[in-house]
Specification:
about 0% strand, about 90% helix, about 150 residues
Length: about 150
């Protein structure tokens, strides 16, 4: 009667796989939502704040340059170009860092999605193994009863 235990174990393996998959799908949904939330926060809060700061800093730099009394040409103009370049670089770096963070968070989501699929597969594989054991047990019992194979 060991085949009954194997049949129960097969069904249990499938249910455990489905449960683990549901947990990992929830984790994937969490990481996906977190990635979207972080991107929205950057686009709606951090990026506009950075752009305002950069604009304010540029205005202050320009006013300070003009307050020296020197004409805005030559060296002063070159300094402004360098300042603009540095600010553009700062903005690009902020965008790049946000993109990296977004991709990392999305990757977490994808990893949990794949882990859910693997859990389903593991459950099915465990079930097949248990069904095979049940079949072997039934054949062994039948052989003992009918004496098909003599040792």
């Amino acid at each position: 009667m060991a085949f009954i235990g194997s049949l129960v174990a097969a069904q249990t393996a499938v249910k455990i796989g489905e449960y683990n998959a549901s947990i990992n799908r929830q984790q994937a949904a969490y990481w996906d939502a977190k990635a979207k939330q972080q991107r929205a926060a950057y686009e709606q809060i951090d990026k506009p704040r950075l752009e305002k700061k950069l604009k304010r800093d540029r205005s202050n730099f320009f006013v300070n340059t003009l307050m020296t009394g020197a004409e805005f040409s030559g060296t002063n103009y070159a300094m402004m170009l360098v300042f603009d370049y540095e600010q553009a670089t700062e903005k690009v770096i902020a965008d790049y860092n946000e993109s990296l963070e977004y991709m990392e968070t999305r990757n977490q989501s994808l990893l949990f999605s794949q882990k859910a699929e693997a859990d389903i597969y593991k459950g099915k594989l465990g079930a097949v193994s248990e069904y095979a054991k049940a079949g072997g047990s039934l054949l062994s019992m039948a052989n003992q009863h009918y004496g098909w194979i003599q040792a």
